[in-house]
Write a structure and sequence with these properties.
The complex is a heterodimer. Chain A contains 3 helices and 4 strands, in the order H-H-H-E-E-E-E. By secondary structure, chain A is α+β, with helices and mostly antiparallel strands. Helix content of chain A is about 40%, strand content about 20%. Chain A has one domain. Chain B is of the alpha/beta class. Chain B is built from 12 helices and 8 strands. Chain B is globular, with a radius of gyration of 18 Å. Chain B starts with a strand and ends with a helix. Classes of the chains: A alpha+beta, B alpha/beta. Chains A and B meet through helix 2 of A and helix 7 and helix 9 of B.
Chain lengths: ~100, ~260
């Protein structure tokens, strides 16, 4: 969260605050990840994961963000917080034991 | 070989119309045949900035609908004999024109003029699509503000998608004193973010307000800093290499003395 504290620190000049804010805004704009697409990604990830683990879908959080700690050159990242209730026990064939 | 330019920005109020008027007048001063097309249907403004509001009889929609000939709608500028204006309709809205019709109009204008300059409306909807339809090249105007640069980025993306190649940037209303204090983004900040070639930088200048009030472009005003910036832009459009205006503020008593002697 370094970029976050940088953003609002008093030492920063308004021009560089503007530049940093722009970089973050544009990164989101350029990725142009609409909610439908994110929903599709989310469903596919869940489908794969639920083969192996039991997921708590109520606490699930998947979102677009930027790589933390690098405000000069932000890179989009997909942040996924997927709470696991329990692992599924699988046999060698991938079937649930 | 004539060129069709669209002057666009995304955000409103950054100086598209003023830029169009000044570039048009500047090219005409250089002896080029220029037509300025006000593509902002329903919100016509270029005529007032040019001081030609009393001469309008026909407009762009009349030409497209065929209720007058193109030559009848073109208004000859009062100062520069090779400069013409095709005004927008004030009573219709943007949906009254299609991109195909604009394309055809640009082709027609190309035959008679060296430069066709389209003053694009703000926004990214129909009016924008119409304005860029017939353009070969684009000039993106922005100011050093977060909202304006963000919209410029969006516009650059849309221009690329529409295959209007190599858009060039004009950074308008720079305040060198604020840039120096770190209170305003510098040209380098904006170009780093937008990754686009620079056509010119225009300082925030009272002479623009004065010129617009009088209805005459400031490009011919030798005392205007903004006027000089526009003259440089015109030269660059004609293929000359002109260095960007030095907008860094000189401080210290020595520079003030030097400046005094250079001026007098």
């Amino acid at each position: 969260m370094e970029w976050f504290t940088n953003l609002f620190s008093k030492n920063k000049k308004p021009a560089s605050i503007a530049k940093d804010r722009l970089k973050i805004v544009l990164m989101h704009d350029r990725v142009n990840c609409d909610t439908d697409l994110l929903e599709m990604i989310k469903n596919d990830i869940l489908m794969v994961l639920s083969k192996y683990v039991d997921i708590d879908t109520n606490e699930l959080d998947i979102q677009m963000s930027q790589a933390p700690g690098d405000s000069n050159n932000p890179v989009p990242v997909l942040l996924a917080n997927i709470p696991i209730k329990k692992m599924r026990k699988l046999n060698k064939d991938g079937q649930e034991a | 070989m004539s060129e069709v330019y669209v002057i666009t920005s995304g955000k409103g109020g950054v100086g598209k119309t003023t830029t169009s008027a000044n570039i048009g007048a500047g090219l005409a001063i250089e002896g080029k045949r220029v037509v300025l097309v006000d593509a902002d249907i329903g919100l016509r403004n270029l005529d007032v900035v040019m001081g030609l509001e009393n001469r309008i009889v026909y407009d762009l929609i009349n030409v497209i609908e065929g209720s007058c000939r193109l030559k009848q709608a073109l208004i000859k500028d009062k100062r520069y004999p090779t400069l013409y204006l095709l005004p927008a309709a004030q009573t219709k809205d943007k949906d009254a024109v299609t991109p195909e019709q604009m394309k055809k109009l640009c082709e027609q204008l190309r035959e008679d003029f060296d430069y066709v300059l389209l003053d694009c409306p703000a926004g990214i909807e129909q009016g924008f699509k119409n304005a860029i339809a017939g353009a070969d090249k684009a000039i993106v105007v922005t100011t050093p503000e977060v909202s304006a640069v963000r919209d410029a980025d969006r516009i650059i993306g849309l221009l690329e998608a529409a295959e209007v190649r190599d858009p060039m940037l004009i950074l308008n209303r720079i305040r060198p004193d604020m840039v120096k204090r770190g209170d305003m983004m510098a040209l380098e900040d904006v170009t780093e973010i937008l990754a686009i070639d620079v056509l010119g930088v225009i300082p925030d200048d009272e002479s623009i307000v004065i010129a617009t009030n009088k209805g005459e472009p400031c490009v011919a005003d030798n005392n205007s800093q903004a006027g000089r910036a526009f003259r440089d832009i015109v030269k660059r459009m004609m293929g000359e290499t002109v260095p960007l205006m030095d907008l860094t503020i000189e401080s210290g008593i020595f520079n003030k003395i030097k400046k005094f002697f250079v001026r007098h």
